[in-house]
Every structure is written in C-alpha cells, then in structure tokens.
Amino acid sequence: MHSTDQQAHDELRAWQQKMQRRPSQLNRFTRHLQTRLNALLPERVHLALTAAIKQMVRGVLFGSTHTTGQPRLGLPLAEREEAVHTRIRYYRNTAAVEGAATGAAGFLLGLADFPLLLGIKLKLLFDIAALYGYDVKDYTERLFLLHVFQLAFSSQHTRNDVYRRVADWETYRQTLPTDVHEFDWRTFQQEYRDYIDLAKMAQLVPVIGAAVGAVANYKLIEQLGDTAMNCYRLRWFGTETNPGSVQEY
C-alpha cells in the first residue's frame, strides 16, 4: 500500500473509533441544552425550517443530477482525494461568505441561511460521490448520501446506528425501500436541526451574526467533507476491487 493510501487508511481507523463511541455525559447534556434552546424560537420558525429541510432533500432525490460531473473512473485514491480536498475548500469558503452575508443582514435573512447552507452541503456530497467514482443517478447512491449527511449531523446515539448501516452498506442497500416516502424523514430533519441549532442560533443575533455565520458554516462544511471522505474510504478499502479501478488492496 502506498504511503498516501496508508495515511488515508490510518485516518479512517481513527474516524471509525470516533463514530463508535458511546454517548458521553457531555453529549447527553448538549442534547438537553439543544432542546431548551429550541424552545426559544417561535413554533412557526421550527415548522418553516422543518418543511424547508424535508422538501429540499426530497428534491435532491428526485431532481436532476445534470450539474454533477460524471463518475471519475480509473484513478488512484491519492488523486481522487486531492480533488476532493479542493472541492471541500471551495464549498467551505462559499458557505463562509454566505453565512457572513446572511448573518449581517438581520433576523429574516439569517433564517434564509438554513436552506441555503443545506443546498451547498448537498451539492458538495454529490461532487464527492462522483470524485470517488460513484454514479449519483443511482437511487441507492443518493440514499447513501443522505446517510452520510445524517452521520455528520446527528447526536452520538443516532450516529452509532447510522454508522453501522454505512459500514455494511453493500448489504444494507439491499433492504432499502423503493419508495422514498418510506425514508425516516422525521428523525433525519430533527437530528439535523438539533445538531446545528447550537452553532447557528447565535447567527440570528444582531452585531455578532456575521462573524458567527461565517465561522459556523466553515466548520460545518469541513465536518461534512471529512465525514464523506471517510465514508467513501470505508467502501474503497472494504472491497477487493474499487469502482472504476483494477487496483487491489
């Protein structure tokens, strides 16, 4: 195994341990705090955010994939990951600018940051999938992206369950529903909202909103990119022959 591949493998092992940790006391406290903070926002705001998340993500599953490049075939892992890092940096900077702009514009535009940032995250996942050699026109590959998303932005308790599905994806995908309406949208949107509320609620506060929005978006995109890379590393090292390549490990 090449040194760059060995480094990726070592990073994957460390990430796997993190994904399988038991929820700590801090995790439980944070979840309780998120519930208390959620209560500060009016119910109509929660309903609007929930509807936006659900409709945008469902739109991705049914929508056109023409903006995503063709799967990159026949490339070594190091070359793929160099391209992935470039895409993460691009979307990370884009999200930071968007967060600063909406945070500086006040409460109403601050709310608009939620669906805007969600769109940036989903587009990043589509690009990463193609760079690792997977065709997002495949319905099950788009569902895989939802699991990656959920893994990145869930409580540790939910993360443990989602990780097990991702780690055994080739088996789990055989059990996936053929009807997207059977996907557990309630858990998906609630975990996502609860996870980002702590980081994002301060963006709605005057004066500090711009700085908070920029930093929070930067970190959230960075976390999603890292999660996606390790999920695809699981599939790369977990099969004898990876997609679009004849190299074996």
TrEMBL record:
Source organism superkingdom: Bacteria
PANTHER family: PROTEIN ECSC (PTHR41260)
Name the UniProt record assigns to this protein: EcsC family protein
